[in-house]
Amino acid sequence: MSVIDVITPQGRAYCGTYVSLDLHELPAGQHVRIAAPEREEAVVVLLEGELEWAGVRAQRRNVFTDRAAAVYLPPETMVDIATESATELALIATLDAGITEPLSAPTVVGPHEIVVHERGREGWQRTVHDVIADAVPAERLLVGETFNPSGQWSSFPPHKHDGEDGEPALEEVYYFRCDRPDGFGLQGLYRANGEAEAVFVRHGTVVGIPAGYHPVAAPPGTNLYYLWALAGAERRLAMYEDPVHRFLNDG
C-alpha cells in the first residue's frame, strides 16, 4: 500500500501560506493510505470515480451529476482507500496551523450530508454545497463546491476575507472544472489599492486567492464548477463585500 502525505509536493497544485491543494488520479484497483501530519488537518474530496474508504463505499460519476463525498482527517490520522474504478481526488490540507487540540477520529461525509444553498439573484445565481462546514468539527478548514450556471456570476457581489477591513483573515484556493472540454470562465482578482487581474480559467485551472476580491463569471454555453477551500488562524467566514457593489443587495 502506498502512502500519500497531503502536504508533500506529490500532486501539488497550490501551496500557499495557510492552505494547500493536491490533485491525484488513481487507477482502478489501487490501495493508498492518505495521512494528515502532526499539527495539521486535511480533507479528501472525491471528484470522480468509485472507491471504499473508512469502510464506506462512495461513488461519483462527475462533479456536475452527483454530490460530493469527503473525509475529514484531524492531525496524525489517516484513511485507507481502495479504488474500484479510475478515481480523481482532491487533497486539501492546512499549512503552519499548529493545531494542538486532542485528536479525534476521521469524519466521513456522504452525499446526503452535503448542505445545499441557492444563492444570488438573476445575473448572479449559483448553487453552493457545503462539504466541510459547521457539521464537521474541523479546527481550520472550510471546504465546499460552487456550481456557476452559464451566463451567471458567482462570488458576487465581489467579496473578500483577507482581514484588511476587520473580517477574519482566510486564504482561499479555487479548483475549476467545465461541463464541456472547450469551455472556459473568467476569474477576477482585485484589491482596493487598484491592483487587478483577470485569469482565463479552463477545466483544471487552479487559482490561489491570498487576498482581495475574487468574482467569477461563466460565459453563455459553459457551466462552471469550482471546489473551494479556506484556512486561516480563525475558522469563521465573515465576508467583506466591496462597498461599491453593496447596492445589489438592497431592496
Structure description:
The chain has 251 residues and is mainly beta. The chain contains no helices and 22 strands. It has strands at 2-5, 12-15, 19-26, 31-35, 42-53, 56-60, 70-73, 78-83, 87-94, 107-109, 115-119, 126-132, 142-148, 153-154, 159-160, 170-178, 185-190, 196-201, 206-209, 216-217, 224-232, 240-241. The strands form four sheets. Strands 1, 2, 3, 4, 5, 6, 7, 8, 9 and 10 form a ten-stranded mixed beta sheet that branches.
Relevant terms:
251 residues; Jelly Rolls; 10-stranded mixed sheet; 48% strand
Indicate the mean pLDDT.
92
Radius of gyration: 18 Å
Helix content: under 10%
Look at the structure and name the CATH superfamily. Answer: Jelly Rolls
Report the CATH topology name. Jelly Rolls
Structural class: mainly beta
Q: What is the level 1 CATH name? A: Mainly Beta
- Poorly predicted runs are none
Individual helix count: 0
